[in-house]
Amino acid sequence: MTAKKAKLVFFERWADDDAATRVLTTAPEIEVTRLRYADPRAVNDTAMAAAHGYQIQSRVELDQFWLAEAPLLERAPNLLAISSTGSGYDVIDVEACTRKGVLVVNQAGGNAPAVAEHAVGLMLSLSKRISSSDRAVHREADVDRFIYTGNNIQRKTVGILGLGNIGRLTAKICRNGFDMTVLAHDPHLSEDEIRARGAEPVSRDELFGRSDFISVHCPRTDETFGSIGLREFSMMKPTAFFVNTARGGIHDEARLAEALSRNLIAGAGLDVFLVEPPAPDHPLLAFDNVIANPHLAGMSAESQTGITEYAATQWIEILNGRRPPRLINPEAWPLYCRRFEAIMGYAPEGAATEPA
């Protein structure tokens, strides 16, 4: 039980407002405040300055002034933790939070089935030419169906870049559902762990060279931003497809457009863009062999409820002084514990005793 009321703020809406209410009403020790971007900034600044927790929106909906970066942390001296909407946390400056003793948490795994299914759906649609033939039927009176002859994905090879919660489930669907050969590259996992997750460990170059489908499931970080460019697309088979349901910016959009214009690859399925939603005149939208979605792979009705329940339950843990289960920056824990005790009036469970 908290020594004083814990204050949690969020802007506009949760992924599932009903699920948030259902979970958080079981924790009367937490005061939840909805903020609105249209309200005077002074009003929102006052609420943020007093807040102990900030449930941040995804990049598509988020007002850039409320990105969780150093300026916001300076305006929010009582902030103890920031939670992302889903598994991605690229709207949060983790290093800045760590320096301030602010915990960063996510909802990893909460929308994994939705994203994995969507990734495989894009593979199917691209390979079977479902989307391009649908467009033809809508715009042409007499469609030559032989032009749209596609390929099965059965027993093809999929290369998965990042074998976390979503990548692992994508591998399982491809392996068990379509008898595909599953290759994976993940620099954060050992070869034995990759095998345990149902994939053959390969180098990054081998992944791009051998695969009939590349499916991206790594986070967007300084290391991965812009890491897939013309070099990687040039390694791919001309019959291979590129799928990204992770984050925009991991692949270089201009270089992907160049690869498509040069027929270096067969097509792309993109749920994510660097700027979301992409402008109607975005170069990639001019290609008939590109399927574009507005970052909705993880937005099934079930997953919206799931990630909200994950987040709300984790907030109850955090604001009652317990270590959260999906902590991104554990190195912030010692300073966080000291700040928590100073702000909330009691030490969290398992408080670190290391000197500052």
Concise overview:
Residues 120-297 form the D-isomer specific 2-hydroxyacid dehydrogenase NAD-binding domain. With 356 residues, the protein is α/β, with parallel strands linked by helices.
How is this structure best described in words?
With 356 residues, the protein is of the alpha/beta class. It folds into 2 domains: 6-106 and 301-344, NAD(P)-binding Rossmann-like Domain (Rossmann fold, 3-Layer(aba) Sandwich), CATH 3.40.50; 111-288, NAD(P)-binding Rossmann-like Domain (Rossmann fold), CATH 3.40.50.720. It has helices spanning 17-24, 41-50, 70-75, 94-100, 112-127, 130-139, 165-178, 191-196, 204-210, 230-235, 253-261, 301-319, 333-344; strands spanning 6-11, 30-35, 53-55, 81-83, 103-105, 157-161, 181-185, 200-201, 213-216, 241-244, 267-270, 290-292. The strands form 2 sheets. The protein has a 7-stranded parallel β-sheet with strand order 8-7-6-9-10-11-12, with helices on both faces. The chain has a 5-stranded parallel β-sheet with strand order 2-1-3-4-5, sandwiched between helices. Helix 11 (253-261) links the parallel strand 10 (241-244) and strand 11. Helix 1 packs parallel to helix 12 (301-319) and helix 5 crosses helix 7. The longest helix is centred in the last third of the chain and has 19 residues, at 301-319. It is elongated, with a radius of gyration of 22 Å. It starts with 5 loop residues before the first strand and ends in a 12-residue tail after the last helix. The model has no long low-confidence stretch (mean pLDDT 94). Belongs to the D-isomer specific 2-hydroxyacid dehydrogenase family. Residues 69-329 form the D-isomer specific 2-hydroxyacid dehydrogenase catalytic domain. This is 3-phosphoglycerate dehydrogenase. Keywords: Amino-acid biosynthesis, NAD, Oxidoreductase. GO terms for molecular function: NAD binding; oxidoreductase activity, acting on the CH-OH group of donors, NAD or NADP as acceptor.
